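Q: Structure for this?
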Amino acid sequence: MSGILDIIIKIITWPPLWQLIVLGLIVPLGVVIFILWFERKTAARVQRRIGPYHVSPKIAGGLQLVADLMRYMFQEVIIPKTVDKFPFIVAPLAALILSIVPVVAIPFTSIEAYFPIDMSYSLIISLALLTLSPLFIILSGWASNNKFSVIGGMREAYLITAYELVAVLAFLSAGAITGSFNLVDIVEAQSGVKWFIILNPLAFAAAFIGVLLSTSGFPFEIAESEHEVVAGAFTEYSGLVYGMNMGAAYLKRMIFSIMIAVVFLGGWKPYTPGEGFIAGYLVPSIVILVKATILMMIFSFFRAVYGRYRLDQALDIAWKILFPLAVLGFGLGLLEAYLGII
Amino acid sequence: MVPEELVERIKSLLGDFAKEIKIWKNDYIEVEVDKENIEEVAKRMKEFGFDHVKDLTVVDYMKEGFFRIIYNLGSYDNFELSYYIVGIAYNIPRDKPVTKTLYYIYTSADFQEREAYEAFGITFEGHPDLRPVLLSPPVAELKPLRKDFVVKEDPEIIAKKK
Amino acid sequence: MPAKPVSKQVPSRGGIFSKFKGNIEAIAIGVKFFFNPQRFTLIYPKEYIKLKEGYRGFIVLRKDKCINCGSCARICPAAAMRLIRLPFTDPKTGKTRMKLWPIINYNRCIFCGYCVDVCPTEALYHVPYHDVVYETMDVMDLDLEEFQKEPEWDTEKQGLPVKYVVDEKMGLVKVRIKEEGEKQ
Amino acid sequence: MSGIIRTQGAQVGFNDLKLPGMWSRKIGKDLYEIFIGPQHPGSGHMRIVIRVDGDVIVEADPDMGYVHRTMEKLSEVRTWIKGIPLFERMAIHDACNVTLPYVRAVEKLMDIEAPERAKYLRVLLCEINRIAAFLYGFGIFGVFLGHSTMYMWPFGDREVWVELAEWLTGARLTHSYPVFGGVRRDVPAGFTDSLRKAIRYMRKRLEDYRKIFVDNPVIRARLEDVGVIPKNLAIELGITGPNLRASGVKYDVRLNHPYEVYDQLDFEIPVFQEGDAYARVWQRVEEIKQSLNILEQVADWLDKHPRTPILHDKFWKTAPPLYKKIFEETGRAKLGAVYAIMKVPAGKAYERAETARGEISYYVESNGGNKPYRIRIHSASARNALVYKYIVPGHRVMDLPAIYGSIDYFPPEADR
């Protein structure tokens, strides 16, 4: 009996599976639910409202999100006759899956036994995987065969080209500092106060804003701005598929936050992974997730303060301000590497 | 400026075009003109300082058998004139409701002429885009603001039976 | 003193510094309200507003004051108030005559209060509440008996009464009204 | 509702592009037709059909009438007093402003004028309504720009003014407050104190709005140089209200054709020169400040003057003692039975007033009967609708909400 249990535990804690299912899907999903609640509560406080309340008054409306999820689950999924059925259904699924896949290339500890894959080029691999999912949003807009969806998809394409480039470039500056694409090396280089947020604030700022706008959360959902294009690429979606679309955006933002936490906020530092599963794997991942969650909370605070940029203005900012900023950050990284600050 | 003074000035401005000028309640001046001269009158009024159409009113005199079209002109730029509204009024027969548009003189009459078109069925010749604006086409067919379109509201104040 | 037009200008565009300042100010005020939300939301079924005297709520007839003039039905802009012909026995003389009494149809009523204001003997009055639930539309068409009763107000049984007071700092302040029993 | 099927477009059929199950037609090379509305959240019940070339609008066709209620026709079959609750449904949060010119036009025809106290009370409610309507407009504007805080704050602060209006008139929105020859209620005890508190509160809040919305760089970027209406074009199109003044035209009905007691009050008419969406936002902020000034003066006047009749002698002289007693006790001026069956002398009157969204004008014609012969209403939003047709082309698609919001267009008011 205990033998079977051991085997099950072994299978679950097998790093690729553990990382993809637990750290990639279940935990981020929980964090996303918390963040959605937090976002609504934050906005409500700033706006002098109460926010979610009546579903569960004792825990400040915490179950509201569960109720919303139930509603999405039981809503009829309408597939219009005019759509291209196969991509219409597959695209959101693919976007959801692809937005959590990058997590397999992110190390949550420094102990080699708990790496899901070889970490030598993990920075490049994770960034490459991260930038895949938006393609499927564009695809779902195209497959919907609807004017608003097509416009939304096009806007998404514009924004992603601009902002993901900025974010990717900013992340790569960490590689410039350390001279390595290995995320473990990058984390290990950030000892003491030498986190890259302090060493390279330019790159961090570029990455932060790039992530904020490329994951198009409210109010930066230019591609879905409801006053002109209803719901952008997701106009024709309903029910669970629509919820999946929305969830994918938040999951992607969560994975991006984990990336920022690893690359700029010192990963599992100041904790040093020890021996065994708990000290060597579980605790450092919790440290990273907490950092990522705090980042998510900061992201969601902005919804209460800002409005929506116009598409061309957003692109202006990306190409004229953030892109040079990211390049400068890259240069700063090179300079620091040359001076040997690390 | 007292209204009488404005009336004198309008008289000298319009000359024979103004058939009759009336002052209503001290601030509303009604100038009756002929349908043929309306464009010329509008041009002169615009040069005089009445720079926009405040509203275009059509009154249906069913018994007398004509529509009265009133362009109520106002002024934005001239402080003295802006106290007054001048209604340029002319009659057209009810059975042949066709007249000329003032769209090319007063752009502000654009939607209002469309409104008069849908509610009274008056055709403004030369208007570039004469479609109904508020009503849907089938309702506009009924010409609802004409007096022969009767709205029946239950006038009985004594309840029939509970 | 007539009004005088005054030319104004929007604040100048400013450079990168004023943009930075604008961002900081916006975030700062957001943070300020995040920590001190100054809310005055009414949590409705648990609390309800006890409206002020003079609120134009549901209308009730005092039959003994009614002189059957019919002004209320004549002035009603929504044709909600109608007259109904019913026998009436004069308590003094004992004679029975047909008289016109007002009845109201709440499907149509817009609560303008003209009927109450036009009533020469104050036979109609408003109750200061408006959240009354009817089950069907037929029930909302009251007859003379129901018109004389104040409509049942379920909200009062479920929640606590509050009132809103204008306040200089908060805008409105929710003040709990002590019920009669609580005073002691 | 113009109906999309246009005669001009008839040469191309409705299934021109052969898209399965979809109505489609060619409108020109490289043009794309988008329907903004009518069921979009925020935009209200109104549709704008735009044709875009890439991201730039080349043609806009406002399609109004989704909330048309035939007010002009209905008023012809109802007695005079019934027009007041009817017309205030044009813009219920601006109820006193939109009904006042009707009441005044009928008063003109009857040759009566409201007593001075009633005039002050009318101004009081007008300004309260004006502020509330501006705040409503700000809220909708916030939604359009995706600024959710600016949506909630003005709606919350509007509650203060709605509360005051309710205290004064007995109804939150549909006050039906002015009647021919006066108003229906006097101020309740303690009202002016609360009013002054609300004024001070609102002044403070305007500063908060400035910080989070008006001076917010994101919002400024959205609004500056967007939807510019030059002065001459504003006059030509007959734009009205704050939009007109933001384009540099010194026109306000309260200044050019003063009604009630506006000529005795000391206030400014702010005029901005830029004419873009950002100037229109500032215009409204400044107008709220001026309305607060007016309210302060009205509160002072009301404090100094004791309660005097608020209905014209024609109606109040013959009032029975019970009426006078109720007025002394509660401040409620009961209406005489004559209101229900009133006849108005034959004649024509033209009256206008400055509502929150601009000038509203009533042409009232009576043939001496107990019902109007013809009432023509032209509301501010109906006049501002021309902006969509003439100003919007040339802007980007995402500018449309910014222009829509800055015009403060209110479909029910435009559709009448």
